[in-house]
Amino acid sequence: MKKAKNKFGTKPLKEVLKEVVAQRPLQKGVQNVRICNSWEEVMGAHIKQYTEQVRFSHNILYVSLRSAPLRTELSYQLELITERLNNHLGESFIRKVVLN
After folding, report:
1. b/e map 21-56, b = 16+ CB within 10 Å
2. Contact, 32 vs 56, CB < 8 A?
3. Most buried of 23, 41, 61, 73, CB within 10 angstroms?
């Protein structure tokens, strides 16, 4: 006779958190946060100083910068930046980066 899987048994916290995050509505939110945080991780602390806001919507990463010269300089490298961000994330989430 097979043992019934104890649905209410104890589980490690790590396993429970994985199950919670794997739920569809939460997974998208966690993914958006991860994508927005990748801007700072890839671009570094210096550019983070001039970054006001980063948001992700419909495969486009919107970045608001305080420095017009920096915005102009980065605008020449948007394809490279997009590629570096997607490489960092391990998937092609970002189709385009828009600097404001």
Report:
1. eeeeeeeeeeeeeebbebbeeebeeebeebbeebeb
2. yes
3. 61
Task: Tell me the pLDDT tens digit for each residue of 27-72.
Answer: 788 889 999 999 999 999 999 999 999 999 999 999 999 999 999 9
Q: Where are the domains of the chain?
A: 13-99
Domain covering 13-99 in this structure, CATH number: 3.30.300
Q: Report the alpha-carbon distance of residue 96 to residue 62 in Å, rounded.
A: 9
Contact 69, 60 (CB under 8 A): no
Look up residue 87 and give its two tokens: 């490489």
pLDDT of 97 > 70? The answer is yes
